[in-house]
Amino acid sequence: MASTLHASTFVPPGFVVDRVDRDDALVLITVHSESDNSPCPACGTRSRRIHSRYSRRLADLPLSGRPVRLFVIARRFWCDKVLCSRRIFTERFDNDGLAPWARRTGRLDLIVHHLGLALGGRPAADFARRLQVPVSNDTMLRVVRRKGSPRMVPPTIIGIDDWAWRRNQRYGTLICDLERRKTIALLPDREPATAQAWLAEQPQIGIVARDRGGGYALAAAKALPAATQVADRWHLMENASTAFLDAVRKSMRSIRTALGAATIDPDLLTSAERLQYEGYLRREDANSAILALAKEGSPIKEIVRRTGHSRGLVRKILRGQRSDIFRLRESSLELYLPWLDAQWEAGHRNGARLWRKLKEQGFRGCLRVVSEWAARRRRADKVNGDILRRAPSARTIARLLTIGRDGLSKAETVTVAAIERGVPLLVEARETICAFQAMIRKKALADLEPWLERAQSSLVGSFAKGVLKDREAVSAAIALPWSNGQTEGQITKLKLVKRQMYGRGKIDLLQARVIGAE
After folding, report:
1. Which residues lie below 8 Å from residue 169, measured CB to CB, with a gap of 6+?
2. Euclidean distance between CA atoms 205 and 189, whole angstroms
3. What is 157-232+485-516's CATH topology?
4. What does DSSP assign to residue 85?
């Protein structure tokens, strides 16, 4: 059955249409309230005595691709209550439909609010203009700020992590409700005192998932001493991989010896590599001088005074954290070196020809790169009949030692076998790290204590000491299902919102957009 459309169906409830005027650019609808009375905003008494009338002009939802304006004939009433502070008041409507002093209807304001939440200021204003809702970008942001963020449900399981206002300069803190998977608070900095003050207001929290940093751990311990802290599993895996990479860097001298690349022939170096080699020799002399002074019993302060190096550098050298291993600069030919070696052995030694064949295989380098490789290979053949052996970088070696043997080429397999045979301590460190990561994946909490006893005497002992110091949180990460992955995802969302506003959003606007959009 066909239904008849009346003009009153297009206006907010509670209004009667008096007149409709339209042209190609605008639809103007004149309306008045269908109620014969209105409550006084001061005392709540309803009045029917009309004092006067006035008009209000409001924007409403577009109709047939044209913007709509409501011309509201509003009334002023007398308040008949003797003790009321107001004698005359203006007519009040439903706040959801037409709020006092509003220039838009409630339903249009809701659309503007959601556009501002989703797109921000300028993009939302551009999109609204296409929808025939001409609202400026400043108005979009004012609406978002005015609405604010909804009242949060008191959480019991949270994740807490930092986010960058500006990388390496200023940071804030994001708190996520892990059960409801939503952001519940943004703090303006990442100071432990700020996080502690917020946590102290939420005594019902029982579990706090955090990263491996000590700031949030200290804040949670002070504010919620009975809560269980959970270390983030991703950070544990990442810290373990970093610990093994550090072990490889400390073992680079032994690795170079095992690979037969401990000596450098300066005659086979290019000009750029020779400059690097000279710097390497200078650093080696500085290291030897500092180690000799330390062996004589000189304190760090005296070594700093006599050598002129910084205190931090001296500490690094004494702790073995400065591995001055000369590494030839990695070339774009690295992936093609086995093929080039095979071609060279087969007698194809023309640089230009090799370069053309490489281009067919996808090589994007220039002719000069291949020509220099060929020239240096010829020099190596003339000097001692052997090429300059190059030890891979520490990161490459760490990758080769940790991936499956099925994924290695023949040359890589030989390299790994030589390292395993010449540096057994590194093999032990690899097994220790693999055991830790397997323990995290399998949630084998019973293996933690034996692992700690084994790991403290290995090359990754510093990592084991960090796990021992944070044992309770690490144990909770292994045993409990909670982690900080959801918090990291919310931070990614926050970064997107922040970039939409060109990094200029203040904390209240960020809270309104991130929390209010949930």
Report:
1. none
2. 21
3. Nucleotidyltransferase; domain 5 (3.30.420)
4. S
> What confidence category does residue 297 fall into, taking pLDDT thresholds of 50, 70 and 90?
confident
> At 159, which helix (H) or strand (E)?
strand 157-166
In the predicted model, what is the mean pLDDT of the chain? 85
Look at the alpha carbons of 411, 412, 413, 418 in this order and tell me if their dihedral is positive or negative: positive
Rg value, the chain, Cα? 36
DSSP symbols for 274-302: HHHHHHHHHHHHHHHHHHHHHHTT--HHH
The dihedral of CA 43, 47, 53, 56: what is its sign?
A: positive
CB 123 within 8 A of CB 136: no
Distance CA 174, CA 197 (A): 14
Measure the CA–CA gap between 162 and 213, rounded to whole angstroms: 10
Task: Give the end-to-end CA distance of the chain in Å, rounded to a whole number.
Answer: 41
Q: How confident is the model at residue 1 (pLDDT cuts 50, 70, 90)?
A: very low
Nearby residues of 104 by Cβ (< 8 Å), 6 or more positions away = 58, 59, 60, 112
- The pair phi, psi for residue 11, each rounded to 5°, is -110, 160
Q: How many CB atoms lie within 10 A of CB 27?
A: 19
CB neighbourhood size of 224 (10 A): 21
> Across-strand partners of 74?
54
The CA distance from 264 to 258, in Å, is: 14
Phi, then psi, of 515 in degrees rounded to 5:
-80, -40
504 token code pair:
């200029």
Is pLDDT of 386 > 50? no
- Beta pairing class for 170-177 and 50-63: unpaired
Query: In this structure, what are the phi and psi dihedrals at residue 100, rounded to the nearest 5 degrees?
Result: -60, 140
- For 425, the enclosing helix (H) or strand (E) is helix 424-442
> How far, in Å, CA of 258 to CA of 419, rounded?
6
Strands (E), 86-221: 88-90, 157-166, 170-177, 182-187, 207-210
Closest CA to 365 of 329, 336, 327, 396: 336
What is the widest separation between alpha-carbon atoms in the chain? 115
What tokens were used for 29?
A: 């609808």
Token pair 């370069």 is found at: 355
Tokens of 151: 């009242």
Counting Cβ atoms within 10 Å, is residue 145 exposed (0-12), middle (13-18) or buried (19+)?
Answer: middle
Q: In which residue are the tokens 């490889």 written?
A: 248
User: pLDDT, tens digit, for every residue of 466-491?
Assistant: 999 989 999 999 999 999 989 999 99
- Whole-angstrom Cα distance, residue 370 to residue 25? 69
Helical H segments across 296-361, by residue range = 300-307, 311-318, 337-345, 351-360
Would you kindly state where each structural domain of the chain is located, as residue ranges?
8-102, 108-147, 157-232+485-516, 237-261+389-482
Residue partners of 131: CB distance under 8 A and separation at least 6: 62, 111
Strand 207-210 to 228-231 pairing: parallel
Q: Do the Cβ atoms of 410 and 206 come closer than 8 Å? A: no
In the chain, % of residues over pLDDT 90:
29
